Amino acid sequence: MKKNLSPKEWANEFEEFVSADPVNPPVQLSNQILSNVQSDLNPSVWSVFSKITFIHFVTGMVSLLFCPQFGVSPFHEHHGLMEIFMNLGKHGCMLGCGAVFLGTGGLATSLILRPEEVRTVMKTKFLQFSLLSALSIGAFICAGADVVLNLAVAWFIGSVLGGLLTLELGWKIRARFRSKVVYGI
Fold first, then answer.
1. Does residue 9 belong to any structural domain of this protein?
2. What is the C-alpha to C-alpha distance for residues 109 and 100, in angstroms, rounded to an integer?
3. What is the pLDDT of residues 105-156, one digit of tens each?
4. For residue 87, what are the domain limits?
């Protein structure tokens, strides 16, 4: 087939294409393609949770760089957000720290994952962020942190709320950018 066809040649090519006998792909190939599309559009909750866990691990480690509590912060002489949170009392501080710790992961999740994966998260978001919060507290205990139950509960509530709110915020920001790109708004 030559590259530069005249309008008449294009019409002839099109007529030949339209009048050709249909060729059906093998059933196995069609089923495999449909299965792949189905799994891409509806990812499993567990595969998405594993991605969220990895995102949370990375963002959590980064957020700990700004927290003087664990002694890994290069900014240990500056208390930053912790100083502000401490003005809210012990429970307010725990709420704020939890919100920042899991909130960074929630925001990153909403911006990094594919839209289909974020929709999967949205279906079970409370369960997923509660599980991430519990796993985080468990990791802190394994790392040697002293945990007081009522403060851990405050941290847990703050982290779940922070994760949920930033997930929603990031999703709305992403939707806004999508509408600007698609609709030029």
1. no
2. 14
3. 999 999 999 999 999 999 999 999 999 999 999 998 998 888 889 999 999 9
4. 43-183
Closest CA to 94 of 141, 159, 146: 159
Query: Would you say the pTM of this structure is higher than 0.85?
Result: no
One-letter amino acid identity for 10? W
Look up residue 167 and give its amino acid: L
- Please tell me the total count of domains within the chain: 1
Say how many residues make up the chain. Answer: 185
Reported for 45-51, long-range contacts at CB under 8 A and 24+ positions apart, including other chains, are 45/120, 45/123, 45/124, 45/128, 48/113, 48/117, 48/120, 48/121, 49/128, 49/131, 51/109, 51/113, 51/117
Residue 75 lies in a domain: yes
d(CA 91, CA 139): 20
Q: Is residue 146 one of the residues assigned to a domain?
A: yes
Cα–Cα distance, 131 to 127 (Å, whole number)? 6
Give me 44's structure tokens: 């499993």
Q: Is residue 30 part of a domain?
A: no
Place of tokens 């990094």: 112
Measured between alpha carbons, how far is 81 from 90 in angstroms, rounded to an integer? 14
The residue among 172, 166, 171, 169 whose CA lies nearest residue 99 is 166
